[in-house]
Amino acid sequence: MKAKTKGYYKLREEIDWLAKKLEKQHKKHLACKMGCDLCCMDYSLLPVEFYSIANALKDQNLKLDYPSVTKEGNCVFLKDHKCTIYSERPIICRTHGLPLLYMNENEEWELSACELNFTTFDMDDFTNENTFPQDRFNSDLFMLNKEFIRELKDKNYGEFDLIPLRELINHLETRKY
Ligand code: SF4
Predict the structure, then answer these.
(1) Three-class SS of residue 39?
(2) Is 152's pLDDT higher than 90?
(3) Read out DSSP for 69-133?
(4) What angle do CA 155, 12, 125 make, to 5 degrees?
(5) Element (H, E) at 45
(6) How far apart are the first and last CA of the chain?
(7) What is the average pLDDT value for the chain, to the nearest integer?
(8) Residue 17 banded pLDDT, cuts 50, 70, 90
(9) How many CB atoms lie within 10 A of CB 32?
(10) Is the CB–ligand 1 distance for residue 91 below 6 Å?
């Protein structure tokens, strides 16, 4: 399964690089800080990302420390306001707080960012150069996933199937992967 998830890590590196660059660029407009977990929700992932993270956590033999009960809607890996799988957190978590540019269902460009950020920033100053092109990376991930599920013969995932991140706990506890 590792060879099939190679493309995922390459994409993640590219995203990390851009996220770091944007963080630097917007430093004074970001209220993001350690202990803030406003963006940490109960996400679901495409299989390519789910299994990549499962494999990485298995390889690290990480002793997971997560709360036995979580607040509804909260991520199961959030403990004491901190991410317990930080180095392997999903792509969506790597862009938390940044200005995300995407096309909405009416085919209009929209920008999304945490309400705590950019409070004094002039929205007209957002350009292609200082925003995160979410659609581009989402389509790259979608294509990687298409290839990945095609090769996963023992499962029958559809192109749009998502796996809740919380399912990772079962995988890690039973080592079912
Ligand atoms: S994986 Fe980590 S960063 Fe992502 S939502 Fe969960 S706790 Fe937050």
Answers:
(1) coil
(2) no
(3) S--TTB-TTEETTEETTGGG--HHHHTTTS-EEEE-TTS-EEEE--TTS-TTS-GGG--TTSSEE
(4) 130
(5) strand 44-45
(6) 9
(7) 90
(8) very high
(9) 16
(10) no
Q: Which atom of ligand 1 is nearest to the CA of 86?
A: 2
50 lines ligand 1 (CB under 6 A): no
Compute how many other C-beta atoms are within 10 angstroms of the C-beta atom of residue 141.
21
Helix (H) / strand (E) element for 51: namely helix 47-59
Three-class SS state of 145: helix
CB of 75 shorter than 6 A to ligand 1: yes
164 beta partners: 44
Q: Which residues 6+ apart lie within 8 Å of 9 measured at CB?
A: 52
Residue type, 51: Y
